[in-house]
# Entry
Amino acid sequence: MCISSAAEHRMDGLVSIEVTLLGTGSPIPSPDRAGPSTLVRAGEATLLVDCGRGVVMRMVAAGVLPIGLSAVVLTHLHSDHITDLNDVITTQWVMTAAETPLKVYGPPGTQQVVDAVLRMLTLDQQYRLDHHDDLDYPPVIDVTEVGPGDAFDVADAHVVVHETDHRPVVPTVGYRIEHGGAVAALAGDTVPCAGLDQLCAGADIYVQTVIRADLVKAVPNQRLQDILDYHSSVEQAGQTAARAGVKTLVLTHYVPPLLPGQEDDWRAQAAAHFAGEIVVANDLTTVTAG
Ligand SMILES: [Zn+2]
Ligand SMILES: [Zn+2]
# Structure
């Protein structure tokens, strides 16, 4: 479904959840792929899952400004997933007409990251507060640190937090977002584990960050080899999707960067294990459910 018709169907109540991949890249820079970040629109809720490189530009392309966000939810605090949180915070702040807290949910450590981002922006905030008479409040970030088993509502969307396994990066979580009987599972970086299976169980849409284990193994570089043990390979994403009985598997966060023409190779590795729909997403690919 194309973005415009998906938006129309969402407004008509025909789509319960709409997932737009904002950034399908990874820490490795790509000219065509922003950093990891996904927009989930569910009823009245607009959630930003992670804030990778270039997120605000991609959000605007998807028709959402930072002031339109209901909440930011973070899967973990690796730099590629949070690097443009400062841009989300500042743009939301300077475009508000009145003090409007930005809700941020994330694993323990999120408050520390937000505090540090705000500290980094102290001079900028002072410049703007001094310059604009009508801007007389600082950015207000309402942080809630969450862990596995926690649940919260954002507007009319229900969000359940599940444990993932990205060790040695700890803690990490995934988000199961439910609205109107549809379920989207946003896994973040993780290897297959029981928490991931619970996160994805019966989901309509399962978004998984992936690496191509076969291609990574072929590169004689220890720093690249190190990533093999804490990411799902494309095959493992297919296996998780099959085991959890999801309808649609969405691949993102490609390592190495997926180049045009290679989509079928990536899809085939997941399809060897999963018979459902497989979306090899590009930036701004939209998938709907419900
Ligand atoms: Zn990570
Ligand atoms: Zn990552």
User: Anything to note?
Assistant: The two ends are 13 Å apart (CA to CA).
